[in-house]
Amino acid sequence: MTGGGSDARPSIRVVVADDQELVRGGFAMILDAQPDIDVVAEAGDGVQAIAAVREHAADVLLLDIRMPRMDGIEAAKIVCAETGCRVLMLTTFDHDDYVYDALRAGASGFLLKDVRRDDLVNAVRVVAEGESLLAPTVTRRLISEFTSRPAARPGAALDVLTTRERETLQLIARGLSNAEIAQAMVVSEHTVKTHVSNLLAKLGLRDRVQAVITAYESGLAVPGA
């Protein structure tokens, strides 16, 4: 793969992992054609994906859920725990019930396999910047998962947060962007970014997706509220 461009910013190094050669080849071709994205490797299973991420110091791993030898969930756990690579899961969704497990493993987002070309490219860029990304249908599945569980009481782990950080976490759990949180809290967007960064660090979370999960699991956010 060549990819990469003459831009001063370094290219986003991507590994594409899918056991279907035509599928991963198609995604790789689309991404590698971008001036700021470099597909450094392709993988046909979870074991190969992990090895490729380590070998090429990848920034983003585009990872299918269902693969031989080691599935995407297990691969995501290892990649997220042992590297700084961001994981973007691929799913057919209608046949996959592993959204929650993948997000708990540290995945930064989900894409459906019938994603449009522009949305695929944008998703890789968003995740590479440290943000999270979920297709609306996946978000509904995640909320449904929490709705089916008994309500929890806010856990002591959140005691490390300031009042404003807790409020920020609640708004993140509602799906608000930084700009929308800033408007709701009547503060600057820079202040919101600071709150988000602080609460992620204090709670030991990788990104906003894990923040949403923590908010619901701790009882700070309640489905339907």
From TrEMBL:
Keywords: DNA-binding, Phosphoprotein, Transcription, Transcription regulation. Residues 154-219 form the HTH luxR-type domain. It comes from the Bacteria. This is Response regulator. The keyword Phosphoprotein applies. PANTHER family: TRANSCRIPTIONAL REGULATORY PROTEIN NARL-RELATED, TWO-COMPONENT RESPONSE REGULATOR. Residues 13-128 form the Response regulatory domain. The keyword Phosphoprotein applies. The modification 4-aspartylphosphate is found at D64. It holds the Pfam family Response_reg. It comes from Nonomuraea guangzhouensis.
